[in-house]
From TrEMBL:
It comes from Selaginella moellendorffii. SUPFAM superfamilies: Protein kinase-like (PK-like). This is Protein kinase domain-containing protein. The lineage of its organism: Eukaryota, Viridiplantae, Streptophyta, Embryophyta, Tracheophyta. InterPro entries: Kinase-like_dom_sf (IPR011009).
């Protein structure tokens, strides 16, 4: 205790240890070893695949000469970052029901006991926090990086100073310290506003010669003779938006160090990293199978069976097998004028539909049709793949999402009371009734007939996809762009009220429908919608949200962000082809920094520019988009833009009719629908 009271000047200690530190950092043959092996970090990455780290505060960008307020904001961002890691690890690996037995604290004012951020055991509270309560310490400095990717000597020195205090406190503590396992090891993180690293100090602190008078020389001697010091390389943790790159090396080092610190206090987790990481192989296998059969359907080639062979006969057999596999998964093709009979899953009766035309291509079986019961109203018919005799995971996943899962999503919308003219309406779903006798043994079984067991989904309305609209007629006008934005926001609001996110917005997923005099827009293809946290959205380098590209998951404002990219395309914005997701993320980062979306949309409408600014403020946060306020603003902007086009009619936003924009005659001031807020 007396030694700890004398060991108080961090700068003095760093000065005495400087020669030793420079020798270790500058000597490639005797430099500090890494605290973690690359295989350990890979295992952690696989184990936490799909786990969401939800940081609330962005990291400000720290430059020399900035005010103390920025430094305080950075400390708060580091506190939030550390709390996010600890909370997520605790809930994922230890207990999702019990409260986390730690809290995070940092410097509070000039008289603060701490000069960094700390993860503290529950025995420490507020101003009573002392070193024996500290589980992990974070050194926060303006710049930590030095030459060759290592931390500068002063940062390592400060980290060692705090690490020695942590080890000493566990030895002389009168009460039981927070750390109960591997008490001879301390982890100190060091970060700036961009990068981070880990220092691990391990050693028998009882061998420290506390009776000697030269305090800092003694501490340096102990480090040289009795301590095992490991220092990681300095890696980027936060991007320029202030968001953590959770799956990258920099963040993974900090996460793994924090995991070991929690283990020191609470023991081994209930679920080991090896157990969680083992699931990665099965997920990868399922994805490979899905891609294999998508490739067979698209290209007619099965690369997984391609071998280097010299025998012509063997090559012919391989080609025949591949063709048989293709035929096995080939979707049913229907000719215009033919009749499709469906065993409706809801009504348990036969429904007839007459095919009018094909709406898909060689990859998708989608048709326009009319019901034999309801006359000339056009409907959309999605036809699934033929059920194979192989494992269910080998079936065509594209048509499965398009038919079976979209049926589930639309049924869920109906059950939760979601209804909007801007969403597809489920008309019928079930299996095809084929001609002749059926020898299936159960209602869910199938016979040998090639049509038996094929699932079909029928929806309304029918329209023209926006990619085809743009190809035929050019970019949308200002009025049509506002109308499209309004209609899609209304669709997202309706679905969001039931906890459903689309997750796959693109020009191919939006149709323009001819209404009573005007067009309206419907968001279709809800097969990849997200209902639960475990659901994975489709990934589009052009239109997916930033968070979806980074984490493979949707944040609350993901669809609203994708809408910005869609509008940008519809008014003539240039969207390159991306070779990788990293290229797509870099393009987004540059475009938002240069306000590319705001500038182009601002030429169409100031409200669209304001909407893009609003979305920019939400990126990287857990906050949802406020659809209602933007529906009202866009309605007013639409009214202003449409006055000249409608010649005496204005537009009213009807709150009680699914967010429908309706024309109102100036002379009467009355609407054909329910009155609402203008």
């Amino acid at each position: 205790k007396d030694f700890a009271k004398r060991f108080v000047d961090c700068d003095e200690f760093t000065s005495h240890a400087q020669e030793w530190l420079l020798g270790k950092l500058g000597n490639p043959e005797d430099q500090f070893k890494e605290p973690f092996q690359l295989d350990e970090l890979k295992q952690l990455d696989y184990a936490l695949e799909g786990v969401i780290f939800q940081q609330l505060l962005r990291m400000p960008y720290w430059q020399h000469g900035l005010s103390g307020n920025i430094a305080a904001e950075i400390n708060l961002a580091v506190e939030d970052f550390l709390h996010t890691i600890a909370q997520t690890l605790w809930e994922t690996l230890w207990s999702s029901e019990d409260r986390m037995p730690f809290f995070v604290t940092g410097p509070r004012g000039k008289r603060s006991y701490l000069d960094g951020v700390a993860l503290v055991g529950k025995s420490g509270r507020g101003m009573n926090t002392v070193w024996e309560h500290i589980v992990e310490f974070v050194e926060v400095q303006p710049e930590i990086g030095g030459d060759a990717g290592f931390a500068v000597s002063s940062i390592v020195g400060r980290s060692l100073f705090h690490g020695i205090h942590m080890l000493m406190s566990r030895l002389y503590s009168e009460k039981k310290p927070s750390v109960r396992k591997h008490t001879d090891t301390a982890y100190v993180l060091f970060v700036d506003s961009k990068c981070g690293g880990v220092m691990r100090l391990r050693g028998d602190i009882s061998k420290l010669d506390t009776k000697a008078g030269l305090t800092y020389e003694v501490a340096t001697d102990w480090l040289e003779q009795h301590a095992d010091v490991a220092v990681s390389s300095v890696e980027q943790v936060w991007n320029r938006f202030g968001n953590a790159n959770w799956g990258d090396l920099g963040a993974l080092q900090l996460i793994l160090a924090t995991l070991h610190c929690i283990e020191q206090c609470r023991g081994s987790p209930k679920r080991s990293l090896a157990e969680l990481a083992s699931d990665h192989g099965s997920r990868l296998h399922r994805r490979k199978i899905e891609r294999r059969f998508l490739e067979i359907q698209e290209n007619g080639i099965d690369h997984s069976y391609r071998q280097e062979v010299t025998s012509h006969e063997i090559q012919e057999i391989e080609e025949i097998e591949a063709q048989e596999i293709i035929r096995e998964f080939e979707a049913l093709k229907l000719e215009p004028g033919s009749t499709l009979w469906l065993e409706d899953a809801q009504w348990q009766r036969g429904c007839g539909f007459r095919i009018v035309s094909s709406l898909g291509d060689e990859k998708y079986s989608m048709y326009s049709a009319t019901s034999l019961d309801e006359g000339d109203k056009l409907l959309s018919v999605y036809v699934g793949a033929h059920p194979s005799q192989l494992e269910p995971s080998w079936e065509d996943m594209t048509t499965w999402y398009q038919v079976q899962r979209q049926t589930r999503i639309l049924n869920t919308m109906s059950q939760r009371g979601v209804s909007s003219r801007y969403l597809p309406q489920l008309v019928s779903s079930g299996r095809i009734l084929h001609s002749g006798s059926c020898s299936k043994q159960s209602p869910g079984g199938r016979c040998d007939h090639p049509w038996c067991g094929i699932s079909v989904l029928v929806t309304s309305p029918v329209g023209e996809p926006l990619d085809i609209v743009v190809a035929k007629h050019g970019w949308l006008s200002a009025v049509e762009t506002l109308r499209c934005c309004h209609d899609l926001l209304s669709a997202l609001r309706s679905a969001g009220s039931a906890g459903i996110q689309h997750g796959d917005i693109s020009p191919q997923r939006v149709i323009r429908v001819k209404g009573d005099g005007d067009y309206f827009y419907v968001l279709i293809d809800w097969g990849r919608a997200v209902l639960e946290d475990r659901d994975s959205p489709a990934i589009s380098p052009r239109y997916s949200s930033t968070y979806a590209l980074q984490e493979g998951k949707l944040c609350p404002a993901a669809d609203a962000e994708s809408l910005v990219y869609l509008l940008y395309f519809l008014v003539g914005g240039s969207m390159p082809e991306f070779e990788s997701l990293e290229a797509a993320l870099q393009w987004r980062e540059r475009a938002w920094a240069l306000r590319t979306f705001q500038l182009l949309l601002g030429e169409i409408s100031t409200v669209l520019k304001a909407y893009a600014d609003y979305i920019d403020s939400l990126i990287g946060t857990p906050y949802p988009a406020d659809y209602d306020i933007w529906l009202r603003r866009i309605s007013r902007a639409f009214q202003s833009s449409s006055d000249q086009v409608n010649h005496g009619k204005r537009i009213q936003y009807i709150e009680g009719s699914g967010g429908v924009i309706k024309p109102v005659d100036y002379n009467t001031g009355e609407s054909s629908g329910t009155s609402g807020t203008s």
